[in-house]
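Q: C-alpha cells for this one, please.
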Amino acid sequence: MNEISTIEKIHRIAADEFLRKGFRGASLREIVKKAGVTTGAFYGYYKSKEELFDALVAPHANHVLDYFKKIVSEFMEIPKSDWAKNMFDYSDRGMREIFEYAYDNKDAFRLILSASEGTKRRQTDSLIAAVG
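A: Here is the predicted structure, written as C-alpha cells:
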C-alpha cells in the first residue's frame, strides 16, 4: 500500500476542510485531528492556519501572477506604434495560458476563489500592487 506523508495528509484534509467551510469556518483542531497529528506537531510544519492555506495556494497564485507580469513585460517591449495591432494576440495568449493552468490546477483555484475570505489571498489591493 502506498503511504502518504504527514504533510500530504495535512494538505489533503485541510483542502477539504477549507473547501467545505471556507478559511474562516475551517477548524485547525479538526484538521489536525483528522490528519492524526497533534497540534504541536502541526506547528512544526506551519505557524498558523493561514500559513497552511497559503502553502496550498501560493505556488499556483504566484505562477499566474508571474506569467501575467511576463506577458505585460513582453508587450511593453514592443514599439508603442504596434500596441494596437498586437494587443489582442498578447491578451489572448496570456488568458489562454492562465485559464489552462487554472483548469489543470482547479482545486487550488477553487480554494482561492471560494474559500479565501479572511486570508491575504482575498485582498485584491495586494494583487493590484504586485502587478502595479
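A few notes: The radius of gyration is 19 Å. The first helix runs from residue 6 to 25.
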